[in-house]
Amino acid sequence: MDKLKISISGVRGIVGETLTLEVVIDFARAFGTYVKSGRVVVARDTRPSGKELKESIVSGLLDAGCEIIDIGIAPTPTTLLMVKELGAAGGIIITASHNPSMWNGLKFVSASGIFLTKPEVEEFLDIWRKKSFTVVSEKKQNNIEKIDSQDVARRHIDKIIKHINTDVIRRKQFTVVLDSCNGAGSVITPMLLEELGCKVIEINTEPDGLFPHTPEPVPENLKQLCDVIRTKGADIGFAQDPDADRLAIVSEKGECIGEEYTLALATQFVLKKKRGVVVTNLSTTKAIDDIAGQFNCEVIRTRIGEINVVEKMKEYNAVVGGEGNGGVIIPEIIYGRDSLCGIAVILQHLAESGLTISKLTSTIPQYKMVKRKIEYPLDKVDTLLEKIKDEYKENPINSEDGVKIDLGDSWVHIRPSNTEPVVRIIAEAPTQQRAEQLCEDIKKLGTS
Ligand code: MG
Asked: Is 448 a catalytic residue?
């Protein structure tokens, strides 16, 4: 059986197996203790298991003397915004993001409306491990305030619209096909698109958490979306993961343009308006460097994990950032990956360019990315990484998160998993064949 996965991004497990109500209640008690019995925003994605888990979260927070603001079903970025705007002490989001429905999990938000940083996670997990919970003698049942999901959605949309030229988008009257995977983006996203004057063709926007396809918004899961775009002659298609922080784009030809290009297009749009630092993780497409180079802007690379990107964005006062998996961060709106911000900036970019989305994408240098996984004993990983470094010692190497080798027009990034005996290899090159070859070369070092 898989273990409960605990990382900087939160907790994830299989419901009823590793993620039980007892486990969840302890995490809530620990978080309530960590935020010193303050006000906590609680939200969930649409997974059916979320309902019961939320009751345990609420109960654990009440045990710790917290006040609760229940915002119902809400996307992860919306919750980040609400924690900040309501001046809460923190937030808990019940979601397993892009994982299939038997999974669920918890993401923890700090008072600043961003995920807990590494030292904060450590402090919080220390309370959880030692079970050194604050316990109040009497739970105050009237400590729960509910805010309607529609009102919450409205606040998020208003915040986005303030930073977008809605007129330019409205004039185009785009036909947009939306696949929210019946997740937390199902209600708010059509609201946003209609506000932007789009004709919206909705597929999979029932917020019931019954996922119509494997939820990760990668090409093999978006066939239905591609078909509908073709038959309806739509201008663009958008796909979200169940907690609506990731965004994938499908072209007017019904072709997936690849999640890496969501951030690339957003970066191109932002830098056109405002020059500044771009922050992204080590595994994100090199197209970001090419775009930033065209505008004479600097790119800062970080370890994998949204909070690592966000922390560097704050440090460098970045104008845009995010992760290649379709995670766009527009700092004036929300310091977190937000598919709705992504949709708004992509539509404005598309409208201002006067091009089709496939033509607009072709203005960005094209690379092929290949991802592989090899089983490898955890205790031997360090030796393997040293061997790789030695093999490529002539090339620039970054060792902040595994080993990333810069090969000029291509790169390969080797990252050991923290939780399983697996090493991930990601390579990017101008051609598919070259990217595959790079992965093979690394695999060979792992077996020789
Ligand atoms: Mg997600």
From this structure: no
Please tell me the predicted confidence (pLDDT) of residue 379: 86
Taking the mean position of all CA atoms in its chain, how far away is CA 400?
21
Cα of 249 from ligand 1 centre, angstroms: 15
Helix residue spans in 107-148 (DSSP H): 118-130
What span, in angstroms and rounded, lies between the C-alpha atoms of 428 and 407?
Answer: 10
Distance in Å, CA 244 to ligand 1 centroid: 6
Kindly report, as residue ranges, where domains of CATH 3.30.310.50 are found in the chain: 368-447
Domain with CATH 3.40.120.10 in the chain: 5-147, 155-361
Centre of ligand 1 to C-alpha 136, Å, is: 34
Distance 183 CA to ligand 1 centre (A): 10
In this structure, are residues 391 and 445 in contact, taking their beta carbons and an 8 Å threshold?
yes
User: Is 216 in contact with 209 (CB distance < 8 Å)?
Assistant: no
Superfamily the domain 368-447 falls into: Alpha-D-phosphohexomutase, C-terminal domain (3.30.310.50)
Coil vs helix vs strand at 332: coil
Indicate if the pLDDT at residue 418 is higher than 90.
no
Q: Tell me if the domain spanning 5-147 has CATH number 3.40.120.10.
A: yes
Residue 333: what pLDDT? 97
Instruction: Tell me if the domain spanning 155-361 has CATH number 3.40.630.30.
Output: no
Q: How confident is the model at residue 378 (pLDDT cuts 50, 70, 90)?
A: confident
Q: What is the pLDDT of residue 447?
A: 79
328 CA → ligand 1 middle, Å: 12
pLDDT band for 2, please (50, 70, 90 cuts): low
**Which residue is catalytic, options 97, 110, 180, 283?**
97
Whether residue 1 is predicted with pLDDT greater than 70 in this model: the reply is no
